[in-house]
Amino acid sequence: MVTATQFYAVTGSATAPDPALLLTFKSVFEHFPGSIVTLLIGVSLLFGHFERSGSLSWLTDKVYKAIGEHTLLIPWVGYMIGLFISTAGAFSTATITLLVPVIAALGRRMPRIFFISEVAAIVGANTGALSPINPVGTVIRDSANHAQVSFNGWQLWLLGTIVSVSTVLVLQIIFSPSRIQDSTNGKKNRLVVWLY
Fold first, then answer.
1. Three-class SS of residue 129?
2. Do residues 189 and 196 touch, judged by C-beta distance below 8 A?
3. What is the 3-state secondary structure (H, E, C) of 78-114?
């Protein structure tokens, strides 16, 4: 809930009971996160062009064609593409929105690796958001600076990458094609995961 003080400070209303509560335009812009806003606009324009031009779909399609039937590598391709794009500055949600349908199209041909491929891409995209050049990483750094905490942004990104690689590796073992069986009961095939 906004207090009267905050309202007068933000609006600069001449009706404020205490003139000391008024902020000048200069003081407002001193506290305005201009670097984050500039980064958001730049990344949005760049990634919007990347999406509209079809470059992401083209790149992903070429990579998956090069891999062929090496099913163990397919989840890692989604992971690496998601990690790279988010590390370069794109919002992880935008990366996921673009990657999930591409991987779903691949999943129709290889249903046994569909789940782990989608999860790997999502984990990679979210991990890349820790990058210091990603808007999320920038917000984390600014929050840490306000709390007078210093850290290396790339070390945080590397730690997140190590944890996410380990997570995807464990999930790939659990959901490996050898543990998944097609059920022939009924007309529709369903996937059964054996977790033993």
1. coil
2. no
3. HHHHHHHHHHCCCCHHHHHHHHHHHHHHHHHHCHHHH
Q: Where are the alpha helices (DSSP H) in 129-186?
A: 135-146, 153-174
For residue 55, the enclosing domain spans 33-193
Overall pTM surpassing 0.85 (yes/no): no
Summary mean pLDDT of the chain: 75
**Sign of the dihedral through C-alpha 104, 137, 131, 51:** positive
Pair 44, 138 in one domain:
yes
Percent of the chain with pLDDT over 70: 62
Overall number of domains in the chain: 2
Examine the domain organization and report whether 5 and 65 are in the same domain.
no
| Residue 166's pLDDT band (cuts 50, 70, 90) | very high
Same domain, 26 and 83: no
CB 99 within 8 A of CB 84: no
Q: How many CB atoms lie within 10 A of CB 18?
A: 9
* Token pair listed for 27: 């003081």
Q: What is the pLDDT of residues 27-57, one digit of tens each?
A: 666 666 666 667 667 766 776 776 678 776 7
Q: Are residues 122 and 183 in the same domain?
A: yes
On whether both 22 and 115 belong to a single domain, the answer is: no
